[in-house]
Amino acid sequence: MRLQEIKKTRIVIASLLKPVDDTRMFEKLGQTLSEEAEVHIIGYPSQLIPYHPNITFHSLRPFNRLSPGRLIAPFTVLRLLINKTPNLFITTTHELLWIGVLSKIFLSCRFMYDVQENYGRNILYIPAFPKFIRPFIAAYVRCKEWITSPFVNHFLLAERGYEKELRFSGNRKIVIENKTKKVDTIAKKKNDGHINLLFTGTLAETTGVFTAIEIAQQLYGVDPSIRLTIIGYCSLQATLEKIRNTIRNKNFIQLIGGDRLVPHSEIVSAIQSHDFGIIAYAENPSIVNSIPTKLYEYLGYQLPILMIDYQPWIEMTKPYQAAIPFNMLILKPDEVLSQMKTQPFYSTIPQDVFWDSEAEKLKKIINTL
User: Fold this and answer.
1) CB neighbours of 292 closer than 8 A, spacing ≥ 6?
2) Whole-model pTM?
3) Which helix (H) or strand (E) holds 33?
4) Cα separation of 105 and 107, whole Å?
5) Which residues are 276's β-sheet partners?
6) What pLDDT, in 10s, does the model give residues 225-263?
7) CA 174 to chain centre
8) How do strand 323-326 and strand 253-258 relate by DSSP bridges?
9) Strand, coil or helix: what is 73?
């Protein structure tokens, strides 16, 4: 039965920690599926909930990352599923896998798992939990994925590398990469006499926020026209305090967000108005076979990039002359500045970075269900 033929199909997409207007849940999966179906999105509260005629947003009650509220939230999702009785339930987090199994058994709905991360590996190597309990949490999550996998109708994999890494997905899988939505306008500079650098997304040691601060500081020492904007959310209070202390008295650096979720539209606006984006992930097994969403976004908006010299990402940007690779251990800020001012960027317009191709694959797999 084709999606086009089911005008009243009801689809629920849910996460616990992602905001209801999360770019993948709402702008990509949600908007694509809402073309022919009624879509409900469940997620963490957002500051600015957008309007869409075929999408209804359901905000969970706010809770801390490590709190009883996080344990209760899945049951709120289950209650909403019982109320909405969807034809298809898509979870974008491992935390709702048991709820997905229950919904399939008792509500007779199709069940999909949108695998956005290699959760077991990331829990092991990213300091979101105390180090001594990480192996146990990682093992539990991986066991949960294996145990619930027979109930999943299909797996959506956000990275190509997951096809080999995540064996629990079997043959019921399709790669739906986290490419960026088609853009109407390319990046526009502020023309304010400054060189405006930008760091977007999750603010954490592993995502390279402190490396971004350090490179901005070194470039500023050579050229006082350097400015850095850090925009995004930091889930760990200790890390947020460290960021604030690090940039204190550095008037050329501003922080937007930090203790609040930043609407994606605000991030897009920043991408359009800055001169260079910074991609500076710390060397960590968690980035193996991964492509940051911000890399697709910067390429889509033709924003020049200062990027760590990670070979797979360099190869991705090379055809477009999009990036200046750097290594902090041997960084020469005067040479980097010279490249920033003289190197031509985007002699070739990026093509294979847009969501359109993934949207067609998504529609096709939904049709088969």
Assistant:
1) 201, 279, 281, 313
2) 0.91
3) helix 31-33
4) 6
5) 197
6) 999 999 999 988 999 999 999 999 999 999 999 998 898
7) 18
8) unpaired
9) helix
